[in-house]
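Researcher: Structure prediction, please.
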Amino acid sequence: MRVIAMFFFCTLIMAMSAMALASEDQAAEGHGSESIPIKNLIFGFINLILFLGILIYFARKPVANYYTQRAESVRAMVKEAHALLEDAKKIHENALHRSQKIDQEMQKIIESTQESARNQAETIIAAAKQQAQQLVESAKATVDAETNKAITMIHEDMVDKTIQITEQMIKEKISSGHQRALVGEYLNKLEGAN
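Model: Predicted structure follows.
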């Protein structure tokens, strides 16, 4: 109803504008103060009303259908846009959730790797300390063995030298007669023991 009233109001304004333009045209053509006859004005206005009435009668349903379809199309597009927006929000939330999950997994992997590295370092250090201890003990054993060997060799050399020196001293101090007497005494002791 409002649309029809608005339409008639617009038509009336157009008709008045048309009359004003027509009177200006006649004045410009030199008719002077002659005015448009009322009969022509009424006839033009009736023609306009009839034309608009026929136009409204035949175009009302297609125009109404067009605007109804257009409104439905816009509603469908808005509904689809809302659905797409909701889908986008869900996808965004899923992406954020996955990103947070990946960050947590990365943090766990980093912590696990750091712990593994610490354990490996401790194992390597312990093995190195044990090897160092074994090397020290082996070196001490080698030093002790070499020291004992050297001491034994020195003792053997000393004994040999002592025997040599003693032999030489005995040879110098004991004469051949003294040697025979000692040998005889030794033989007598052996015979007496038998």
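Model: The chain has a mean pLDDT of 82.
Researcher: Thanks, that helps.
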